[in-house]
Each structure stands twice: as C-alpha cells, then as structure tokens.
C-alpha cells in the first residue's frame, strides 16, 4: 500500500522536483527519472550508431554520472536533454578510447545503406542509416543531443567548418530521404 | 521542403522516441547500480573509519599522562589520575578486544606518530593516484 502510494507520488512529480530529490540522495526518485527518459537516451545513442547493448551500457553510465551531478541540474532545459548531452559525450569518449574514431573515416567508405522502403514508410532511424558515420554523429549530436556546432567540434576534435559541412550534408541526405518531394521519394513517404 | 521547414521537423523527429519495452528493466538496472555503488562506498568508509578508529584508540591508550605533584594543583592531579586509570582500563579492554580478533601482536602501537602519519599519507596518495588514473581513462 505504502509502496503504491510512493510510486504514485513519484509519477506525479515533475522532473525538476525529482532531480532535486535525487540530488539529495534519492535513488528511487532518480529511478523514476531513468524510467521516464531511459528510452529517449538509449534511442539517441542508437541513432548515433551505437549497437543496442553498447547503447544500453553508455546510457546506464550516463544516468549514473547524472546522479552524481544531479545538483548541477538547474532545470534550465529538460532533464532528458541534459542526460542526452552527458550520454552523447560519453559515447564519443568511448568511441575515441576504442580507437575507432570517426575523424579518420572516409565519409563515402563509412556510408551505410538504408533498408529498402518496402512499405512506403520512411522513419528517422532508417533514414539515418543512409548517412556516413561521421555525418550521422554530427547530425545526431546537433539535433538529437542539442549540442552546438562548436561543442560538437570540441567533443569530436574536428574543425568547426568540417562539423558544419557534415551536419549540412547529413541534413541534405535526410531531407532527400524524408521529405515527400525528396529525390528518392517517388513513392509517398510517411514520416513517423 | 525548405530548410526552414525541415530543421524543426528533424528536431521533432529526434525528440520523438518511442518508449522501449524494457524501459522498467533498464531503470531497475540503473537503480541496482546506484544501490551497489552506494553500498561499496559505505563499506569503504566503514572500513576506513574502523582502521582509523583502531589506530586512534591504540595511540591514545599509549599516551602517558605525566602530571607531577609540583606542576598540577590538587583538582588537576585528581583528573590526571582519573584519566590515567581510565586510559589503563581502555588499554586493557582494547588489548583483549584485539586479542580476540588475533590482532594482539599488531605492532602499530610501537610505530611512532610520524611513521603512522607517513603511512596514512602514502595510502591517501595511492588513493588519489588511483582516482586520477580512473579520471584520465574517462576523459
């Protein structure tokens, strides 16, 4: 009974309130935040190119780090966006550590192939597969994690101009893939 | 579609991410990790506290209270004698306690204060170095 009351009250609380309680050591409150935003963070990491298990590991590390830094969250943006930024940076560090750094990849070599669009549906996850690894990272960091171009340049150790051109090229490809009047969409494309 | 229309659409698509089926499992994993890391921290702090406590007690029981008749007034002398007898009692109790744990021959008491200080400082430096190593791996 008490358990269900507590669970109900947790569900009713706002993210900022839960984060404040978590900053005071509330693990249950933080668990509720992880429940609410875990999928979004894991989804972003997968969109950045992480394998599902890797995305889960990084997301878990990001939430643990967020718990430690919870007092720094002031509610200026959303909690999900804050954790996404932490997760994105952690993923980049992990990639750098694994010496599979994207800066050394030739964009054309790394380019993925999107799955055939048999049902006439195009979703973002599929469309992202048509981008090169570095374009995918730059676009996801910019539009998914909310990092600015200079922040991406610094996090990826790339020149600012290179980041801008990767984002632009990536967006052009996505536009072609996703928009109904795009070059690849002779058929009707429904965006999820 | 112009970029003015497309950019907000991309933002919206990125913001939209379906709730995964195993979201509760993931959250439970995060909570379990938090729990275990806090347990490790508690155990580490308790062990450090116990070690520090044992060292402090042994050191304090070795202190000799030398309040001579000429130097101390009557009240001070009485307090001095009280402390001395209490100290002896504590020393006996600690001694028997340590003997029960097989630490009767612990030679920390024979170490000088300076030696203990350097020992503790060495341990702290090693801890700090381990912390820096971990940080540098993460950065």
Describe what you observe in this structure.
- Chain A is an all-alpha fold.
- Chain A folds into 2 domains: 1-100, Orthogonal Bundle (Rna Polymerase Sigma Factor, Chain: A), CATH 1.10.1740; 107-192, Winged helix-like DNA-binding domain superfamily/Winged helix DNA-binding domain (Arc Repressor Mutant, subunit A), CATH 1.10.10.10.
- Chain A is built from 10 helices and 2 strands, in the order H-H-H-H-H-H-E-H-H-H-H-E.
- Chain A has helices at 2-12, 15-23, 27-47, 52-68, 79-97, 107-110, 124-128, 133-144, 149-156, 160-178, and strands spanning 121-122, 190-191.
- A two-stranded parallel ribbon of chain A has the order 1-2.
- In chain A, helix 3 packs across helix 4 (52-68), helix 4 (52-68) crosses helix 5 (79-97) and helix 8 (133-144) packs across helix 10.
- Chain A is elongated.
- Mean pLDDT of chain A is 81; it is low at 108-121 and 183-192.
- With 139 residues, chain B is an all-alpha fold.
- Chain B has a domain at 107-139.
- Chain B has 4 helices and no strands.
- Chain B has helices at residues 3-15, 23-61, 74-100, 113-138.
- In chain B, helix 2 packs across helix 3 (74-100).
- Chain B is elongated.
- Classes of the chains: A mainly alpha (192), B mainly alpha (139).
- Chain A binds chain B through residues 27-28, 30-32, 34-35, 38-40, 42-44, 47, 56, 59-60, 63-64, 67, 93, 97, 124, 139-140, 143-144, 171, 174-175, 178-182, 191-192, and chain B through 1, 3, 6-7, 9-11, 13-14, 16-20, 23-24, 26-31, 33-35, 37-38, 137-139.
- Chain B: The chain crosses the membrane at residues 116-135.
- Chain B: This is MFS transporter.
- Chain B: Keywords: Membrane, Transmembrane, Transmembrane helix.
């Amino acid at each position: 009974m008490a358990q269900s009351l507590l669970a109900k009250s947790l569900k009713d609380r706002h993210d900022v309130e839960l984060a404040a309680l978590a900053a005071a050591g509330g693990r249950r409150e933080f668990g509720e935040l992880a429940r609410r935003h875990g999928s979004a963070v894991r989804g972003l990491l997968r969109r950045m190119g992480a394998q599902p298990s890797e995305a889960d590991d990084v997301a878990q590390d990001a939430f643990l780090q967020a718990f430690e830094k919870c007092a720094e969250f002031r509610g200026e943006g959303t909690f999900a966006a804050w954790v996404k930024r932490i997760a994105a940076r952690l993923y980049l560090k992990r990639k750098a550590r694994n010496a599979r750094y994207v800066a050394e990849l030739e964009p054309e070599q790394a380019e993925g192939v999107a799955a055939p669009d048999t049902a006439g549906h195009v979703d973002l996850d599929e469309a992202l597969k048509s981008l090169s690894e570095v374009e995918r990272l730059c676009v996801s960091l910019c539009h998914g994690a909310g990092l600015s171009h200079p922040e991406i340049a610094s996090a990826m150790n790339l020149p600012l101009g290179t980041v801008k051109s990767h984002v632009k090229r990536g967006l052009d490809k996505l536009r072609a893939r996703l928009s109904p009047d795009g070059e690849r969409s002779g058929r009707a494309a429904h965006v999820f | 579609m112009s970029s003015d229309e497309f950019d907000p659409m991309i933002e919206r698509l990125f913001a939209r991410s379906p709730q995964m089926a195993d979201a509760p499992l993931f959250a439970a994993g995060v909570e379990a990790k938090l729990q275990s890391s806090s347990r490790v921290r508690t155990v580490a702090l308790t062990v450090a506290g116990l070690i520090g406590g044992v060292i402090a007690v042994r050191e304090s029981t070795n202190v000799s209270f030398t309040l001579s008749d000429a130097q101390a007034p009557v009240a001070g002398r009485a307090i001095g004698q009280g402390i001395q007898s209490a100290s002896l009692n504590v020393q006996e109790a600690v001694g028997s306690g340590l003997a029960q744990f097989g630490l009767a021959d612990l030679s920390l008491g024979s170490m000088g204060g300076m030696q203990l200080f350097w020992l503790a400082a060495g341990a702290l430096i090693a801890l700090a170095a381990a912390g820096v190593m971990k940080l540098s791996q993460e950065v």
